[in-house]
Design goal:
The protein is built from seven helices and two strands; from the N terminus they run H-H-H-H-H-H-H-E-E. The chain is globular, with a radius of gyration of 16 Å. The chain has one domain: Globin-like (Orthogonal Bundle), CATH 1.10.490. Helix 2 crosses helix 4. The mean pLDDT is 93.
Length: 154
């Protein structure tokens, strides 16, 4: 079986189990980033890097299509883009709070659960990458906290 055919079968199975569609992903991404853009903690981080939101939203739709439906639409390097940002565990916690609320508001329960499970894994992985980029190796269960004297694991 060709790779493209195999990917299509995987995607079809996920759609059947979760009900997730590209339209649902677009609604989730746009709804979530509307909250991010008005959030006192997260908005400054995004505003410092993103001046034109339309390409970013399109890229995030492709990212979540790849993550949630295994479509392979996203071809980027999220770890590299996040490693040097001035963020820590508190930012990831806030990101997850907003993402989970948006998924629960806009998606049926099975779909919301699918998105939230993946978002939690992504946040954990990116937090480890950000810590590593600051020279901090997190142990199991440790969180990355920036401090005035440097980064610390807690």
């Amino acid at each position: 079986m060709a790779e493209a055919e195999r990917r299509e079968q995987i995607t079809a199975g996920i759609v059947e189990r979760t009900g997730i569609t590209e339209a649902m992903i677009e609604a989730l991404v746009h709804g979530f980033y509307a909250k991010v853009r008005s959030d006192p903690m997260l908005a400054p981080v995004f505003d410092a890097k993103i001046t034109d939101w339309e390409p970013h939203l399109a890229q995030m739709c492709a990212f979540w299509s790849s993550v949630a439906l295994m479509t392979g639409r996203y071809h980027g390097t999220p770890m590299v883009k996040h490693m040097r940002l001035p963020i820590d565990a508190a930012h990831f916690d806030r990101w997850l709070t907003l993402f989970e609320a948006t998924a629960q508001e806009l998606c049926p329960p099975v779909a919301a659960g699918h998105f939230i499970d993946r978002a939690r894994r992504i946040a954990s992985s990116l937090e480890m990458g950000v810590a590593s980029g600051q020279g901090v190796m997190l142990g199991v269960g440790e969180r990355y906290r920036r401090s005035g004297a440097g980064a610390v694991a807690q």
